[in-house]
């Protein structure tokens, strides 16, 4: 939703609901959220996590024959200190960090869309 809103506001691009009416189609190939332990404290409890947000996408013509932006992947990470004594606060912080990464992701995708041009097809 945020991407749709930003594309409509930031450019002269007209969004359509039907693939047949589109000149280009943005398709997502992957979206993954992950949380990895970075460190433990002296008692063996988690003291730091790394949050990861990965998105894969590509832009083609409606039939998929002409590629404007080949399959690309963006990976964003945020490190987060953790404490068992503040579980609810840390859950809220994690949700906030994921929202922040999603906003960053939208901006990165927009920048790539602006720069997208047809990729020449290889002829033998």
What does this molecule look like?
By secondary structure, this protein is α+β, with helices and mostly antiparallel strands. The chain has one domain: Lipoprotein like domain (Double Stranded RNA Binding Domain, 2-Layer Sandwich). The protein is built from two helices and three strands, in the order αβββα. It has a three-stranded antiparallel beta sheet with strand order 1-2-3, covered by helices on one side. Helix 1 (2-10) runs parallel beside helix 2. The protein starts with a helix and ends in a 9-residue tail after the last helix.
Question: How do the strands and helices of this protein lay out in sequence?
Answer:
Blueprint lengths: L1 H9 L14 E16 L5 E15 L6 E15 L5 H29 L9
Antiparallel strand pairs: 1-2, 2-3
Q: Supply the number of helical segments.
A: 2
Kindly identify the CATH topology. Double Stranded RNA Binding Domain
Number of domains: 1
Instruction: Please report the distance between the alpha carbons of the first and last residues.
Output: 41 Å
Helix content: 25-40%
Broad structural category: alpha+beta
Low-confidence stretches: none
What is the number of beta strands? 3
Strand content: 35-45%
CATH level-two architecture: 2-Layer Sandwich
CATH level-four homologous superfamily name: Lipoprotein like domain
Average pLDDT score: 89
Strand order of the largest sheet: 1-2-3
Q: Write the element-wise H/E pattern from the N-terminal end onward.
A: HEEEH
CATH class: Alpha Beta
Indicate the radius of gyration in whole angstroms: 19 Å
């Amino acid at each position: 939703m945020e991407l749709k809103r930003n594309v409509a506001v930031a450019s002269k691009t007209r969004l359509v609901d039907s693939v047949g009416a589109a000149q280009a189609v943005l398709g997502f190939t992957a979206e993954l959220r992950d949380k990895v332990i970075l460190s433990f404290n002296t008692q063996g409890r988690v003291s730091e996590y790394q949050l990861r947000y990965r998105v894969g996408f590509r832009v083609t013509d409606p039939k998929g024959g002409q590629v404007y932006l080949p399959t690309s992947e963006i990976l964003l990470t945020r490190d987060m200190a953790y404490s068992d004594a503040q579980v609810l606060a840390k859950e809220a912080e994690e949700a906030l960090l994921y929202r922040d990464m999603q906003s960053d992701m939208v901006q990165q995708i927009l920048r790539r869309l602006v720069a997208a041009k047809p990729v020449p097809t290889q002829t033998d």
